[in-house]
Please model this.
Amino acid sequence: MTLAPAPYAEPFALYVHWPWCLSKCPYCDFNSRAINPAAIPEKEFRDAITAELNHYASRTNGRKLSSIYFGGGTPSLMSPQTAAHILDTAERLWGFHFDCEITLEANPTSIEAAKFRAFREAGVNRVSVGVQALIDADLQALGREHSAVQALRAVDIAGAIFDRFTFDLIYARPGQGPGEWEDELAQALALGSDHLSLYQLTIEPGTEFFRRRVLEASEDLSLELDRITQDMTVDAGLPLYEVSNHARPGSQSRHNLTYWTGGDYVGIGPGAHGRIRQDGVTSATHQIADPARWLAQVQRQGDGTAKVRALPALERAAELLLTGLRLPQGVSRERFHAQSGLDIRQALDPQGLETLEQAGLVELNDSALCVTPQGRLTLNAILERLLV
Model:
């Protein structure tokens, strides 16, 4: 199946994947490759990303970009000139919606004030710093290349240069107790960001931690760490707006909200995914994951697409529930119907819904389906029980 040009009015998002990292972290299951920065084929990748931008622009006529996200990998390893070229190309091909959010992921080891100013001049207006921990021993255990001092300096630089910045922390780390997390989170909240991503450590198949049989925190400890997290972030004025994300009102990630509310996005680069709605049907796009194979196909035919697949209504409905129930407000029934063509009850197991409602884990009313605070920590199990 190919995507035919078909205008669609709602602004949409662009994701650009940069697969290169200084090293592969043992908990990471993202499509990333460790490389010496001097060996990155930057010009070839810049040209290939440009080719894919042109390819997908010809299939999404009449749209404007509401957000752009450089993810990875470590996209701050690219030169600001490459970022500027990509952004200039995207603006020429689509145009930017008013106040387009443009985010760049960065690791503390690749953050320098001069380089960050150059990224800002290139058009980046928001950065996401991969801090992960503020304790040296834990950073080493997580396979990170930076120290706690470097992390704090990186956050300080980000805050001085960008009006909007965020950083990540991983908690429920091996050996971490409630008191240690409370102290570390207090330190993080004092750094003044308007947005924080706080992830409980999960051990994913295929990662080094999985091979080492590293254990996740117990259920009781997870619950206590989550309680601390929610209490402290609310007190600091950064309430939860998605399962792992906290922000001051108005500072939520617009790009990630596109994913969680089922909006359209184009995915560019090795392993990137996209969702594009045309003529009432949403198609899933998948780019070749291996960087070398992706690059070779782009150079050969102008895009590195591995697969384009129209999503059946029930499969699209399941996606909308998987993403939308991560939000406190849940899934809008009106928007769900517009995006899937189904009433929300058609995508739900009636007995599962009744059981979960009686247990106080989900709520379905005339406007939305949502998971209660009590149910949020068992979201995956709830989804398994809810879906047809």
Notes: The first helix runs from residue 42 to 57. Confidence is low (pLDDT under 50) at residues 1-8. The domain at 312-388 is CATH 1.10.10.920 (Arc Repressor Mutant, subunit A). The chain has two domains: 12-259, 312-388.
